[in-house]
Please model this.
Amino acid sequence: MKTQPYERWIWIELIGFDHQAPDFGVADYLENAGFVPEAVSLLLFTPDFLHGHGGMEREWELPMEACSYAARPYGKERNRQPWTNWQLRGLVEQLRSHGIAVYCSFFNLFLYRDNGKQAASRWCSAHPELYEMRGSGEPFPVINPLKRLEDGTLYEDLFVADLARVMADYGFDGLHGGDGYTSPRLSLADADYSDDMVGQFLAESGVALDPGLEPNCDGDAAAMQRRADWIWKRQRMAWIGFYARRWAGFWRKTMAELRRMGKTGYLNTAWTREPFEALYRYGVDYRLLAEAGIDGFIVESGAAGLSAGADGIEYEPSTEFMATLLALKAYVPDTKLICLNGIQDTTEQWDVLSHAPTLIERDIYTLANVYLHEPDGLRRCADGFLACLGDGIEARNWVWINGRWQSAFAGVPRQVAGATFVWSDAALYPSLAQYSDNRQWPAHKFLQSLIEQGASMGAIARAEQLEGITGNICIADLHLWPDEQLDQALSYTAGGALLIAKLDDRMQSALSRYGMEMESGRNEWFAIVRETGGRIVKAISGGQAAELADDETDDKLSWIQPLSYAPLPADFVGDCVQALVKLANAPAVTRFAEMSPMAGFQLDNGHYRLFIRNLNTKYRAVQVEAAQPIGKLEVITDFPGLPLFPEGNRFTTQVPGRGITVVDLFTNP
Model:
């Protein structure tokens, strides 16, 4: 029986178990972990696990690359073992006997190293017609699940049939859709521009090629590049929409079969991206996937490894992933979200648990404490964590991880001590078109930037529920909201409001209806600051966003590279942050604010819980100032390990490098 208010999942390779033990090492593993997870996802790496399945009539060895991630030869506890199909079935049975739901997972990858030499999975390497194809005509050797096999049949039909067989033969409870099966690996600006995918696009969308562009140019790199450039420059929105519908169709067909078998399906989100960038970069619409019947998303929110510099990456995505989780929950509010908790990955060569555990702690507390603001209160965005990856973790470290999970999910606040960001589904596609035309900021870009610069925004609300909530709000891209939602936003008086928009004729007309006039010029950014009751207390001018040259807008990017956005005046976002801080009348960081974003929540009258992050590698003595005198302070995290004492309405606390300190603050009655 589930006793904690969150789910604990583990993503693990076969190397984490022992095929020589009578129960395949399951009892020892669970005793070492100190808990029984709700689910275990077995990472089997390659599509050959599915398509090379030889049935259960006889015992045979699995491909070596399925026995550990990309056939890595050893782990912390044992060498890679040659697992058989019967042993894997036995492992699934043993895990399920403990009440654990067992999922199979694999990527669209099939290249690996064997004793230092490149090798390839047998089935995948025999089907180059399925590889992603760059616009340059260069094949990218991963499986594109949306393509056709050489005989003209859709790969997805083979996928569904083989998946059903594997589900039944091994007794899996469901499928955990891994990277490459939930989005492309390359961006839509880069791929897939093969005759197959372009032909599907033309037939599905009704778009006709311009004269001089060929429908069949596989093998002609120059012709393919011309066609690819035309599609991305002239038919971008149609191309994005086509891919969104194709991914939804793939999973609608897959989920129908899983449902028929009584199984479930969870999908990785698209390369850590929130709803806007998932669409723009990869053609993935999370709402369409939810409507296709999936049971939930595994949110790729493992900032820790990236923050630590895995694979030489210079990237600090802590705030970005926080904003991503907020936006994702707003877009699919009824879909379960399990956050990937990046702990270690030997194949990908990072081990944050050993080398930078403060990053794991920061992820846990941050992601467990962002909320969907609904009329009846705050609801956590995260439904639990997926430990990634789960082999070779010592018992003392599991105690440490579990303790932080438990502490992070303790209690639910009654109100945000800052502002609630408000999300509109209806503005998503218009913001996509707006960005495509002139690189203007979508809502999530404002959300992320405001938090980074010091705004306390740990909650998000859906536009259609705006009339039912109270407290301060923040809205961005208000000019893209439909009329009814726009009127609701402009008439909101149940708290203060920061309203960010571009001034066009429609926006000016709407403002006039509510007695507001802006002096900004047409198509200039502005923000209106209103106090509870609706009185305007400030207007902030953002001016005209700068234009970006074509050579500044290359979209053929890795997911770790940021999109290009038209720059706003340097002080516009900062002025908006200061307005939000003043509206909040709540605790705020007043020293080292630029590297110490804080999310605050009110648990009870005069009782605040403050999550103070440090984006710097060094310790920071962060100062926090409350609106009222502070009565007492209680430290929730292990660090700083000494009691804190207020000085009037201020206090100072150390925050570890790239870590987090959580403090309960009680104001004087």
